[in-house]
């Protein structure tokens, strides 16, 4: 059998696993990988980033936009520790990301060698799984297992640590076709009794309410959800993370939560049965709001269950199985939601929305973008909890287009994630929206956007642009963009935003649009 | 409440750290810990004693079950189970108490595993209460040093099916 270098095995395995794009940065202990990269450059595209954190965010954005795992390659020590912020972000939002780090040769492990860090120890609490490869022959198997673990069940990041001597050693290419992990339960099946209990609860209920969280976001689910909403006419809500999963259904009443829609608050108050599917409800709703209501929680992760009162019906299963079974219920239910009431809620929702938009400038920008984006647009945004969650003012029609760091709420996520998303779906328009302060965290990646000549719109909301005190003024982002070779424009919020934005959104190449508010 | 967890894991480096890490994250103390290979060399069994609120322990158990290297977790706290621990105690008696130490050893059915001109080394197996009583009685007789294995446990046959 043909012998390969460890570094070649790395690319052979990636190619075998169907991976075509990786994000990374070279360094001492992965030099062998970069040595052999030119001979694989036709098979696998490597995108050179300028910071490992940004590489992880790009892989994360890539994964969210495409539902394929995002791949990061970097060296040991400082590079690996730089990825931790990005790994935690992926872990909190259950995004499949594979991180491959270089490591000092096996005999030097634990000797405080140059650029050595204990990657396995450091990332233990922020990865779904991590593993150290000790022999060249084990590398393909470890990678296949990592791929399997990251992309099945409750998805998440997996780190594979590759010592230098593993990468320069020689071995045959042996990769298992089927992964066997005795304890790993990827798809907990829906127990018949659980579903019967659910059916009888639904039967007794007058005013049920559905909440779809990120866990219900799956391409095959989207069709079935649409079907359920149409068939049973149950009002439904989404969480921030799952905006868009309901499409443009008339039973979509917006977002749940502190800054959620008007209708969400009303519906929660009036419902008698709350059904949460793949949603981290206990972090969004205080239990006081749920008194005198029956609760059903469906989650793939058993550790997420049992957070509410004892009479909660906890269903441990993959949301796919639950939604499939839900779709096929033959009963006809008589719910007591009045059509007039629900219609009124839609109107109130719109009024409330417009009143927020007229007061809040960032919400206004998202609203304007929504009106301008007739065709599919991916919005990558930074989280900002200051006044309201602005993302809900963009009307998403597909959950894959809503890319933001929810659980980790990390600043500087949006822009690198937009680059990743663009690589995942090159034909789709991608817009990144960040405040100036957030943008500064990862703005060095503008050079990547320019190098790759990505059709990307970078919107930077300059909150301090109008401050009269020169000391308080932030950097001039337009000049910054120009310095990176990105065409940049400055708009004032008082201008005709729709017209000005419209000019810049449909264009070739990367553009930075600074909106001074 | 006191919990005895029996965790079957892959016999691989890093697994114990993963398990212990979850306790650190919650600020829980591990009271006793015992790890050894099982009848299958590829698997290890960890027996762990800790105290905490029931629902938090429940959550921790579910997190264990999510780990790739964890095969099975059992909580013995409510079950009727056999619990054993081994202690090795070194006693340096005064001239007058040399025979008394041997008498105590006899009463507890403990074995003398080493003897020297100055000291006796005793070994004893039993449950927690028995070992504590043993230590309390030996202390005035010149107890110098003690090592305990930590608790190991298996459910009784009757109860096996229920767990």
Write the layout of secondary structure elements.
The complex is a heterodimer of chains A (517) and B (163).
Chain A (H helix, E strand, L loop, with lengths): L2 E3 H11 L4 E4 L6 H10 L4 E4 L3 H15 L3 E5 L3 H15 L4 E7 L15 H4 L6 E4 L6 H13 L6 E6 H5 L1 E3 L19 H13 L3 E5 L6 H14 L3 E3 L13 E4 L6 H9 L2 E5 L3 H4 L9 E6 L13 E4 L2 H9 L11 H21 L1 H12 L4 E5 L20 E3 L9 H11 L4 E7 H4 L6 H6 L4 E7 L14 H7 L3 E6 L4 H9 L5 E6 L1
Parallel strand pairs in A: 2-3, 2-4, 4-5, 5-7, 6-7, 9-10, 9-12, 10-11, 12-13, 13-14, 15-16, 15-17, 17-18, 18-20, 19-20
Antiparallel strand pairs in A: 1-8
Helix pairs in contact in A: 1-2, 1-6, 3-4, 3-15, 9-12, 13-14, 14-19
Chain B lengths: L1 E9 L4 H12 L3 E8 L5 E9 L2 H13 L3 E6 L5 E11 L6 H10 L3 E5 L4 E7 L1 H11 L4 E6 L3 E4 L1 H4 L3
Antiparallel strand pairs in B: 1-3, 1-4, 2-3, 5-7, 5-8, 5-9, 6-7
Give your account of this protein's structure.
The complex is a heterodimer of chains A (517) and B (163). Chain A is of the alpha/beta class and 517 residues long. Chain A has helices at 6-16, 31-40, 52-66, 78-92, 119-122, 139-151, 164-168, 192-204, 219-232, 262-270, 281-284, 319-327, 339-359, 361-372, 414-424, 436-439, 446-451, 477-483, 497-505, and strands at residues 3-5, 21-24, 45-48, 70-74, 97-103, 129-132, 158-163, 170-172, 208-212, 236-238, 252-255, 273-277, 294-299, 313-316, 377-381, 402-404, 429-435, 456-462, 487-492, 511-516. Chain A folds into three domains: 3-172, 3-Layer(aba) Sandwich (Rossmann fold); 192-347, 3-Layer(aba) Sandwich (Rossmann fold); 360-516, Thiamin diphosphate (ThDP)-binding fold, Pyr/PP domains (Rossmann fold, 3-Layer(aba) Sandwich), CATH 3.40.50. In chain A, the strands form four sheets. Chain A has a six-stranded parallel sheet, with helices on both faces. In chain A, helix 13 packs across helix 14 (361-372). The mean pLDDT of chain A is 90. Chain B has 163 residues and is α+β, with helices and mostly antiparallel strands. Chain B is built from five helices and nine strands, in the order βαββαββαββαββα. Chain B is elongated. The model of chain B has no long low-confidence stretch (mean pLDDT 88). Classes of the chains: A alpha/beta (517), B alpha+beta (163).
